TrEMBL record, chain A:
Membrane topology (UniProt): Multi-pass membrane protein
Domain NarG-like: 2-224
Gene designation per UniProt: narI
Main location: membrane
Name this protein carries in UniProt: Nitrate reductase subunit gamma
Organism: Nocardioides flavus (ex Wang et al. 2016)
Automatic annotation (TrEMBL), chain B:
Keyword line: 4Fe-4S, Electron transport, Iron, Iron-sulfur, Metal-binding, Repeat, Transport
Organism taxonomic ancestry: Bacteria, Bacillati, Actinomycetota, Actinomycetes, Propionibacteriales
Cofactor: [4Fe-4S] cluster; [3Fe-4S] cluster
PANTHER family the record matches: NITRATE REDUCTASE BETA SUBUNIT (PTHR43518), RESPIRATORY NITRATE REDUCTASE 1 BETA CHAIN (PTHR43518:SF1)
Protein name per UniProt: Nitrate reductase subunit beta
Coiled-coil blocks: none
Subcellular location: Cell envelope
Region annotated Disordered, chain positions: 511-551
Residue ranges annotated for the 4Fe-4S ferredoxin-type domain, each copy included: 7-36, 173-204, 206-235
Length: 243, 551
């Protein structure tokens, strides 16, 4: 069971994540968009969207530090556990609260503003459910686990993070996750499910974050396309005669 | 010198009767799809008026186009790259649907399905955004023909500085029509605003296009364009804009708006320009000098040196030949009667306008004076400062000198040609008064008044060796293989794009082979009336027949 939950499922989700993105990019460039609804409603979006997105950027940054940076590294630069805990919980709470408040505004907007609601696809709703669950479980872990230490003290840097790095190194150690509190386990499972859904939702727009804009020339010149139809190879211009 | 070719347009506003045929045919051709109901690639505005979207010219509010910074460099008015990326989660300057207008349709079904009542059933307007009942309160040309202008037109941004002098009471104001399409600028600020780099200017003909596969729906182009001619398709989540009908232009036929223009007021042709000079010209300090600076970027196709450079730049010989015959080049640089729309936005627009003389002529005629007499017209141009200043606000960043000059040329042509048409001896002092010869004036008259189709539209087709890849021909793959895509899963419009020619082909094929005549099977509630040939009863066109009872 441990192997299934903490080895097979994560790798399956990772595979779906990678292959799914390649497939979606090759197959559906035209559908690869933010699907913005700003034209329908501006007032709530102006508040909720930056809150949520900047909050999420903070959350993602925190996860990168928390999961990928080993404890020995932070020890080496002189950050002791107490200081680290202080920074992680402080930063995590700030980013998390921004993300949650933004998300609540955005979901409220999506449900109550008629045109926005009718532009919501089934995939959107499924994605919202998983995203909200992942964020709320993460907040629970931070607040209940790290601040009030409900269910005992747990240092995820000795457990979940080590497992995650072993997972990325393709030498997964399932026992570490099995020993983690249920909150962390659920958070990880929901997150992996979200990763598996990712390529089939509007979340793909994360990967088109337009960083190239900072360096490219303002006006883009392009020659008339040789291949006008997306990135599929040009297909033959005749029908094959069946024999 | 880096020679590039630009497909450009000139519109002669004196001939526009405001019939909106260009807008309607353009809409039928390009924006009759879901998500683009409110989109008009071509629209016709009555001026003075608010335009579409409302007060789009107020760049203090909308922050479109470029500004010249104190150090002499150009910057996007809405802010540079970092600011754009920081505001990417919610574009602060995006016009809302109310600034355009909420598109609607009518609930026609009640007209046929209503039970018998004492009162006549009414087809109520239904919003195409929310599906709810709505009050129709604004549209793309709500103030057409100055309708309601006493209320609205005072907010016309171009009246700034002359608002106290303009009378908007009916019969005391002036009025003309301004048809607008995308300007296909030499220095497009929409392209510069696009974080994804999806908007590009085509090297061959300068047409500015949105790559639908690369657009990610960040919406910065919508706010970046000072003419507000990039639109957000709210169904596909992508930006769309006027394409200069490139599938048509590539095979040598004019845009739909030009082809169908009743007044024949549009001219299409090539302009050769020096791409190295564009940025410098756009950054010139004095706004009034922008008109001349842009003209200085254009290259004389008769100049052998330009022809040589064009050849080196890979511009085909027949394209240079077309540039020599270009009516656009003639109107802009030979006769100097065409002016750019809002050069002060510094985007170097490439759809130019011959300002209307009619506001002046109308006033002279209303006074009972001879409205074709040079003296009267010249005097009127000098005294009627309000229309002239208004035109200058539109076309020359407020500098009345070029507008005066153009109007006097048009007035001189009027009186000069009257003599010829009445069989009198032409008065050569008239063209001389505006710095032209009689022969030039006659040539200009021919181009403005009686030019035939082939003289108004000088469009060199793209080259035959590339023909297989052109959109209009669409022979790249069998038509049966286009289309597909998971519409339900990823939203409307996902999958491969279908070329226009293939869509047309399918529509015609449906019409010829389907049993139900012009009623597409998958769209039982929609009937394409354009393809209905009057035979049969397509599904959805008429209420279901009641076979049991009396008809």
């Amino acid at each position: 069971m441990n192997v299934f939950l903490w080895v097979i499922v994560p790798y399956l989700c990772l595979a779906v994540f990678v292959v799914g993105h390649v497939w979606r990019y090759r197959y559906d460039k035209f559908g690869w968009t933010t699907r913005s609804s700003q034209l329908y409603e501006d007032r709530l979006l102006r508040l909720g969207s930056p809150l949520f997105h900047f909050g999420m950027l903070g959350v993602v940054g925190g996860h990168v530090v928390g999961l990928l940076v080993p404890r020995s590294w932070t020890d080496a630069v002189g950050v002791d556990d107490h200081l680290y805990h202080y920074l992680a919980v402080g930063g995590g709470l700030a980013a998390g609260i921004a993300a949650v408040v933004g998300m609540v505004i955005l979901i409220y907007r999506r449900r109550t503003v008629g045109p926005v609601f009718s532009a919501t696809t089934v995939m959107d709703k499924v994605m919202y459910a998983f995203l909200a669950a992942a964020i709320l479980l993460g907040m629970w872990n931070t607040i209940a686990g790290s601040i009030f230490t409900l269910g005992g003290e747990y240092n995820y840097r000795e457990g979940v993070s080590v497992w995650y790095r072993s997972f990325l190194a393709f030498q997964p150690d399932a026992d570490l996750m099995a020993a983690a509190p249920i909150g962390f386990q659920l958070h990880a499972l929901v997150a992996f499910a979200l990763f598996a859904l990712w390529p089939f939702t509007r979340l793909v727009h994360v990967f088109s974050a337009p960083l190239g804009y900072l360096t490219r020339p303002y006006v883009v010149y392009r020659s008339r396309d040789d291949r006008p139809l997306g990135n599929a190879a040009p297909r033959r211009g005749w029908d094959q005669v069946p024999r | 010198m880096r020679v590039m070719a630009q497909m450009a347009m000139v519109m002669n506003l004196d001939k526009c009767i405001g019939c909106h045929t260009c807008s309607v045919t353009c809409k039928q051709a390009w924006t009759n799809r879901a998500g683009t109901e409110y989109v008009w690639f071509n629209n016709v505005e009555t001026r003075p008026g608010l335009g579409y979207p409302r007060t789009y010219e107020d760049q203090d509010e909308w922050q479109g186009g470029w500004v010249r910074k104190p150090n002499g460099r150009l910057a996007l008015r809405a802010g540079g790259r970092v600011k754009k990326l920081l505001s990417i989660f919610s574009n602060p300057k995006l016009p809302s649907i109310d600034d355009y207008y909420e598109p609607w349709t009518y609930d026609y079904e009640t007209l046929t399905s209503s039970p018998q009542t004492d009162t006549f059933p009414v087809a109520r307007p239904k919003s195409l955004i929310s599906g709810e009942d709505m009050n129709v309160e604004w549209s793309a040309n709500w103030d057409d023909d100055l309708g309601g202008s006493q209320e609205h037109a005072a907010r016309d941004v171009m009246l700034k500085g002359i608002e106290d002098k303009v009378r908007l009471e009916f019969e005391q104001t002036f009025m003309f029509y301004l048809p607008r399409i995308c300007e296909h600028c030499l220095n497009p600020s929409c392209a510069a605003s696009c974080p994804s780099g999806a908007i590009y200017k085509r090297e061959e003909d300068g047409i500015v296009l949105v790559d639908q596969d690369r657009c990610r729906g960040w919406r910065m182009c919508v706010s970046g364009c000072p003419y507000k001619k990039v639109y957000f398709n709210h169904k596909t989540g992508k930006a769309e804009k006027c394409t200069f009908c490139y599938p048509r232009v590539e095979v040598g036929i004019p845009t739909v708006c030009s082809e169908t223009c009743v007044g024949r007021l549009r001219y299409i042709g090539l302009v050769l320009y020096d791409a190295d000079k564009v940025l410098e010209a756009a950054s010139i300090e004095d706004e009034h000098a922008l008109y001349d600076a842009q003209r200085a970027c254009f290259l004389d196709p008769e100049d052998p040196e330009v022809q040589r450079a064009a050849e080196q730049a890979g511009i085909p010989g027949d394209w240079v030949e077309a540039a020599r015959k270009s009516p656009v080049w003639a109107l802009i640089n030979r006769y100097e009667v065409a002016l750019p729309l809002h050069p002060e936005y510094r985007t170097m627009p490439m759809v130019w306008y011959i300002p209307p003389l009619s506001p002046v002529v109308d006033v002279v005629r209303d006074t009972g004076e001879d409205a074709e007499d040079r003296g009267n017209l010249f005097a009127a141009i000098d005294t009627l400062r309000i229309p002239v200043e208004y035109l200058a606000n539109l076309f020359t960043a407020g500098d009345t000198v070029p507008v005066d000059r153009v109007l006097k040329k048009l007035a001189a042509m009027r009186s000069y040609m009257r003599d010829i048409n009445l069989g009198r001896d032409p008065d050569e002092s008239i063209p001389a008064a505006v710095g032209m010869t009689g022969e030039q004036m006659y040539e200009m008259f021919r181009l403005l008044a009686i030019a035939k189709y082939s003289e108004r539209y000088v469009i060199p087709p793209a080259h035959a060796e590339q023909a297989h890849a052109l959109e209009e021909l669409a022979t790249e793959c069998p038509v049966s293989e286009y289309g597909g895509g998971q519409q339900d899963l990823f939203g409307e419009g996902s999958g491969y794009p279908t070329p226009v020619a293939v869509e047309n082909f399918r529509m015609l094929q449906d019409r010829q082979t389907s049993d139900t005549l012009a009623a597409p099977d998958d769209k039982s509630s929609r009937v394409n009336l354009l393809n209905w040939d009057g035979k049969g009863t397509p599904d959805g066109l008429f209420p279901p027949r009641n076979d049991g009872g009396a008809a």
